[in-house]
Every structure is written in structure tokens, then in C-alpha cells.
Amino acid sequence: MSSARSRAIKNEIVDFFKANAKVVVSALVILVVGIIVGVVLAYREVGGEFEVVARVDAETGAGKVFFLSLAVLVASYALVLLSGLNKKTVFICCIPYFFIGFILGRLSTALLCRYDIFGLLNFLFVYLPVFIISVFLLVIATARVLSASCTECGSGKLKPSFIALLKILAINAAVCFVFIVLVGLIVGGVIVPTLFDA
Description:
Blueprint: H1 2-19, H2 21-45, H3 62-83, H4 94-114, H5 116-145, H6 148-151, H7 162-186
């Protein structure tokens, strides 16, 4: 029975990617561009020379990171929802992917170049899973908003997918909480990464 269930889940995922290939590919391309821009600007900002921070000197704060992540997610989902208002606003859904990619590029550069092993642990077990799952859920939300049923709604009205987006946002917030707060405790704290000391 479990093999039948796993096949059904696999088929649903394959069907989703087939039906929404344009959204998935576009989102990933924009995300990668954002990551590249974030990494390049981070290196330029410090001139390629990063001051290494000892673990005891690293600022940690799971609460701060969680609420900042939540604010970015709320803004991202709001932009995705607004992108479905009509065909003229579709481009708005590109903004969250670029911004999330930019943040990922910048944070990963700071974590990997300044915080040694502690930064690597934070990147692998806290930040990277949060970003991957958040982008995956945001792609689902974008596909939902830009689906054919949504484009048939009248111009200037929020789509009926508003409730669905709230549910996806709640799942995303719960995932962030688990990784940032709970997994963060396991790895010894969640770094609040910076490129240089203030």
C-alpha cells in the first residue's frame, strides 16, 4: 500500500511540474540570477576580504532570524497574490524570487566566508533547508495564482486562491519555525550573518 501511495505522490509531483513548467523554470532562473547578484555584490562590498568571526563572537538569535524570515515570506506571498490581479501584473511574481535569491547569495557568502564550521553548519542545516522549502512552496503558490482558473477572474479583484495562499504561507512559517528555532538549537544557535562588523 505504501508503494501505491508513493507512486501516487510521485505522479502528482510529475503532473505539477508538467502543468507548470513555465512557472517552475522561470522561478528557478530568476532565483539563480538573484543568487549570483547577491554573491557578487557581497564580495564587492568587502573587497573579497572577509574578517573571520570566532564562534563565541558570532551574533546568534533564532527569534530575530525567524521574524525577519517571516516578514520576507509575508511580503513575497503578498506580491505573488498581487501578480494574479490581471495579466498586466503577472511580472510582479518575479520580484520575490529575485529577492530571495539575492538574500540567499548574500547570506551564504557571509556564512561560509566569515563563520567557519559554525557558519557551514548553520548554512547546511538551517538556512539552506529553509530557502529550498520556501522556494518550493512559493512556486506552488505562484502556480496556483497564475493558473487558468485565476486568470478568468475579473480584473481588479483578488483571486479565490487567497485562502490557499494563506494555508501555504502557514505551512511555510511552520517549516521556518522548525528549522530556525528547533534545528537551530541543535546546531548550537542560529547566526545572524553580516558581511562585516559594524
